[in-house]
Design brief:
The complex is a heterodimer of chains A (244) and B (106).
Chain A: H1 12-43, H2 48-58, H3 61-72, H4 77-87, H5 90-102, H6 107-115, H7 119-128, H8 137-162, H9 170-184, H10 191-206, H11 214-233
Helix pairs in contact in A: 1-3, 1-7, 1-8, 1-9, 2-8, 3-4, 5-7, 7-8, 7-9, 10-11
Chain B: H1 3-27, H2 35-40, H3 44-58, H4 71-86, H5 89-104
Helix pairs in contact in B: 4-5
Classes of the chains: A mainly alpha (244), B mainly alpha (106).
Chain lengths: 244, 106
């Protein structure tokens, strides 16, 4: 991601394309994930319209896959709904993290960019906000979000249409975690950030069996807390300004 | 599940997910957050991404697996070295996938 920095005075159009371009590597994970989701949904007996509806209206891949699994297991609707809500609670953390940068935007922009706030779009956009020329940075967020949105909708549609002909391939299943890994490393800007990541990793592994994937959320909150505590205890001089 | 209840799940899932995404952006002005919380928010990317990725590498099939047999872990370590040295997303994904395919063929 060394090529992220746009020209000295980026135009909205340039930002839009930069945001889109920076998402291209992640489509290696998103598109197979969407294909598999569409195929798995049909396989679980979900009607095509509802399968596409999940992508269109929920637009959160991890929770959509869990939904397919729960429908297949004939889980009651309220259990599925509770699971979607809890798995997607991490988006509130993204929302809080990016909110100061969006504070002065119009409500339309806020509503739109919030709709497009996915894992990958969040992680790249928050890095965009560490670079100069913030006046046009929301166009970068829009380019990132729309690219992922189109890739997710179209790959879901193809997965629904092609269905069982798509073989679940291990390597493709690995690309999404690999994408998160590629996003994780640049976020380790200093010791408190590294400590936050290490504690979150250990706890997430230890708590992976908790119901509704609450372990991910608990581990994230613990990591954020330890990062903040360590930073507060550091001498002011040593504190760097790399924070987002 | 009947199709009607499936659409209720989709509607509810949409509201719950969008509410989370919109929460702080729309409802709570950044200036209202206490200073310590605003400072803590910069740890959201390292903590959340790490919590999402670590179980995928260390517990690929459920139980903890720290061994040379764990293809995801080895490929993830190789990808991490590339990510750390080169700071390039394409190179990281290519190295990780290539390592995975080669190691899975062992």
């Amino acid at each position: 991601m060394t090529s992220l920095t746009p020209d000295a005075r980026p135009s909205p159009r340039g930002e839009l394309f930069a945001g889109a371009r920076d998402q291209l590597p992640f489509l290696l994970g998103v598109i197979p994930f969407g294909l598999l989701f569409g195929a798995a949904a049909i396989d679980a007996g979900i009607p095509p319209a509802a399968a596409q509806g999940l992508s269109l209206f929920v637009f959160a891949g991890g929770s959509q896959f869990i939904t397919v699994g729960l429908v297949h297991q004939l889980a009651p609707a309220w259990v599925i709904l509770a699971t979607i809500a809890i798995v997607n609670l991490r988006h509130a953390l993204y929302s809080a993290s990016i909110a100061p940068h969006y504070a002065r935007m119009s409500w339309r922009w806020k509503a739109l960019l919030a709709w497009l706030l996915t894992d990958e779009a969040f992680a790249t956009t928050i890095r965009r906000y560490r670079r100069p020329n913030l006046g046009t940075a929301h166009w970068y967020a829009l380019g990132s979000g729309l690219t992922l949105w189109f890739a997710w909708q179209s790959s879901t549609a193809v997965g629904i249409a092609v269905g069982a002909q798509i073989p679940p391939t291990d390597a493709f299943g690995f690309v999404v975690p690999l994408s998160f890994l590629a996003l994780l490393w640049p976020s380790l800007t200093d010791r408190p950030a590294a400590a936050a990541a290490i504690l979150a990793a250990v706890l997430a592994v230890a708590l992976a069996d908790l119901p509704y994937r609450t372990g991910t959320l608990a581990a994230s909150l613990a990591g954020i807390t330890v990062g903040a505590v360590l930073e507060a205890r550091r001498p002011t001089i040593a504190r760097d300004s790399s924070g987002a | 599940m009947r199709e009607a209840s499936l659409w209720w799940v989709i509607a509810g899932g949409m509201i719950a997910t969008y509410a989370g995404r919109l929460s702080f952006i729309a409802l709570i002005p950044a200036e209202r957050l206490p200073g310590w919380l605003r400072k803590a928010l910069r740890f959201v990317p390292p903590a959340v991404l790490s919590a999402l990725v670590a179980p995928e590498l260390l517990r690929p099939f459920g139980p903890l697996d720290i061994s040379l047999e764990n293809t995801r872990l080895l490929a993830g370590l190789i990808a991490s070295v590339i990510a750390w040295r080169l700071r390039n997303t394409w190179a990281t994904l290519a190295a990780g996938l290539l390592a995975y395919v080669i190691l899975a063929g062992r």
